[in-house]
């Protein structure tokens, strides 16, 4: 890909717009560094992620324990957000262990102030009603999104994320999707093209299925009675032996009867490798504009690298994990490009490279040259 002028990468990334915003605090907050004078004010919509200690339940897969995987993924998620934004983002970490929160803040503090100051990390304890039947099947930390109105009673709206996600575009662009909600919308969810139909799940779902992450939620409207906990509990009791994805299944079943509560996000906000390999997962916006957010679903970022999807997912994750904030983004691109040379699937290679790198291109000025260079790279 030598024909690309990668020095423009930094210029393009640096030109990404920032939004001047403010939100009231009140949470347990650790400020890791002093705030640079040039920094914009904090984005009003917080991003939420759950990270808990597995304790005796922490399982080792591919020589990585559950706790280690979740911690490493969370740090990469936050790093990708800091690299992509030029505003200050508020992240709320839901956890059962303040020690985990302190480990994350310690890692962020090691970044240059230009980047560490873009992340305002706050702690909240997890909460699930003791009487909830879902605790018979899942641990407390894997069902938090069903109880966000009670977990965050003083917050109006949130963007809920899984730890295994990497931002390729400014996170504030995802939060801005709230501006497209109408008077009834409570949730912003992307469609799950292909997943539910491919595994023949035994529970009802909306359309082709809706992904519970990323999940945009207007918590104020939810509290006003859009969905009550009695309804959630009835669904859990009635279908608990048929769940495949837990709380995602529950939300899909609730929304079958209330489709007007959902604003559908573009599939580029739930990017995964099937969108590059299988026609039933086709996402035209990814083919046109590239991924906005990559999801390492089903443990792929740190899973068994001998499985093809896992291998490519690990390459992507490792490139972001090894990248040092402050280094040119062109270094990350070169490292990722070099690692992907091992691809034996040309169509997959072409789609993946385009999907990952299109966000570096400013408009269409380099489009033709860019596509030609990808084609050459993947066929030689």
From TrEMBL:
Q: Where in the cell is it found?
A: Membrane
Q: What is its main location?
A: membrane
Which keywords annotate this record?
Glycosyltransferase, Signal-anchor, Transferase, Transmembrane
Q: What Gene Ontology terms for biological process does this UniProt record contain? A: protein O-linked glycosylation via N-acetyl-galactosamine
Q: What domain of life does the native source organism fall in?
A: Eukaryota
* Example of a GO cellular component annotation carried by this entry: membrane
The record's section on InterPro entries has: Glycosyltransferase_8 (IPR051993), Nucleotide-diphossugar_trans (IPR029044)
What does the record say about its membrane topology? Single-pass type II membrane protein
Is the keyword Transferase assigned to this protein?
A: yes
Please indicate if the UniProt record lists Glycosyltransferase as a keyword.
yes
Q: GO molecular-function annotation terms?
A: UDP-xylosyltransferase activity
PANTHER family tied to this protein: IP22168P (PTHR46012:SF2)
Give the similarity note.
Belongs to the glycosyltransferase 8 family.
- What is this protein's name? Glucoside xylosyltransferase 2
